[in-house]
Here is the input.
Amino acid sequence: VDLYNAVIKAHIHNSQPSQAFAVFLQMQYCGVLPDNLTYPYLLKACSDESRLNYLRMIHTHIEKNGFNSDIIVCNSLIDAYSKCGNIGICSAKQLFWVMGQRDVVSWNSMISGLLKAGDSVEARKLFDKMPERDRVSWNTILDGYVKAREMNVAFELFEKMPSRDVVSWSTMISGYCKAGDMEMARMLFDKMPSKNVVSWTIIITGYAEKGLVKEAIGLYTQLEEANLSLDAGTFVSVLAACAESGMLGLGKRVHRTIKRSTFSRNTLVCNALIDMYAKCGSLTKAFIVFKKTRKKDLVSWNSMIHGFAVHGHGRRALDLFSKMKCQGFVPDKVTILGILSACSHAGFIDEGISIFNALQRDYGVSPEVQHYGCLIDLLGRGGRLKEAFALALSMPVEPN
RNA sequence: ACCAAAUUUUUAGAUUUA
Here is the structure.
């Protein structure tokens, strides 16, 4: 069972949940009984509405094998359910109130789940009601206010909470960045007693999103000198901000850092690079990174297709579209948007229409307002104004 | 010094969207 657990854990760690489930099935097939460590690992992979059925299956297993009295297994269940949308949150509540004993993690998980579901009133009630609070409890409720854009309430809480750790400070800084108050964010950043890679990422991303080049580059330089070990999140986050504000200079610097590290093989990081170069108008570089990305995922293809599309390279976008299908990737609604946009910008009117007409049949994608908008744009650009207008009036979705 | 071992659940940053 230890070996199976180790393999399951490794798959989860490498974001390969399907393989983790496969191992789980295999261990049952071989007659090895899961233990109290197996379930929390698996449940980590179910924290997504699309896996609600897996979650229910594992839950049933847990009940059947009598692990529902294990408080850690139970807490894992609450956490997983509470991240599965509005249906999940009901099951989480039920479990929470039914379980024999609750520890501080149970309360924290439930509160965090409620906040994620947007029920801050209920979350606050639980926070006030819980018998004891630890740092996670305070940080969770603090983040709730920050995410709700209630920075004044958050600040009051921040000042009166019993102790502040690097997570509390980072939460506040992130909130001020999102609110556009970079002065306050910077003041807290300078003042915080110890910084880690996340705090640096938040503040640099904040500056970069706003196009404040000097500050962003200055702090990035300091970060590199600080000798912290950077993670993929830092690169992805800063690159996304560069893409948004067109900061090619900083983007290139980050790329240089990545080249010197092992992150050049990280798909998430490569995707962020592709998008950054494409958004900054450097399609050639974007394509070079794309080709060098060894384990491409759907996002890699989507980013590159979209890059070609918005720069008017309709043919290249469509070529890439065929290629991805040949390699067994299933296009999703984002891919389709890129493709429709490519057809629109390159004047491939009929091609665009026929792709649109077969969306459901060929790709299982049901057209949303963005797709209709794109098609109307396509017709309009193609000079077929009457059809464009007729479509806008007759489409089965609410116009925006 | 080398080697080895080491994180079961909850909180902060996170790629593609007309």
